[in-house]
Amino acid sequence: MYEPFFLRLRMNKIEHIGIAVSDLEASIPLFEKLLNTQCYKRELVESEGVETAFFRTGESKIELLASSAPEGIIQRFISRKGEGIHHLAFEVDDIEAEIKRLKKEGFEFVREETRSGADNKLVCFLHPRSTNGVLIELVAEKK
Ligand code: ZN
Questions:
Q1: At CA 70, angle to CA 67 and CA 71, rounded to 5?
Q2: pLDDT confidence of 8, banded at 50, 70, 90?
Q3: If you measure from the C-alpha of residue 106 to the centroid of ligand 1, how many angstroms do you get, rounded to a whole number?
Q4: Alpha helices in 82-124 (DSSP H)
Q5: Cα torsion at 95, 97, 102, 103 (round to 10°)?
Q6: Which of 2-16, 77-91, 97-111 has the lowest mean pLDDT?
Q7: Which residues surround ligand 1, an ion (CB under 5 A)?
Q8: Is the model's pLDDT at 5 over the cut of 70?
Q9: Distance between CA 13 and CA 79 in Å, rounded?
């Protein structure tokens, strides 16, 4: 039977969980101990004032986020809410089609355009006011 394209769109697995930390140098060895694995990548996302560190855990990843600027988005998040879970990232196959589908469903975006995120991915964020206070990131492989 014919299935319209939007029914075929899926959020795949949780690609990673982003955790806001205030001291990346202290949190990396902590998560290495917790997950019993090495941090495999550190990356500065200069445009966002964010420093990241990645860990693999099963099919998913943990992304630690620390502020690299005193007024950066992570510092503002920690000042308001404290350290902890910052966002959930879902892997999608076709990020432009997912954005279109979610817009049609009434979801709001922080920015509707995709941009280059950490870990060589295309990313886009849904605004938490339309998702029960949870910041949702869509992640797709760069093609
Ligand atoms: Zn992320």
A1: 90
A2: low
A3: 22
A4: 95-104
A5: 110
A6: 2-16
A7: 18, 63, 89, 137
A8: no
A9: 30
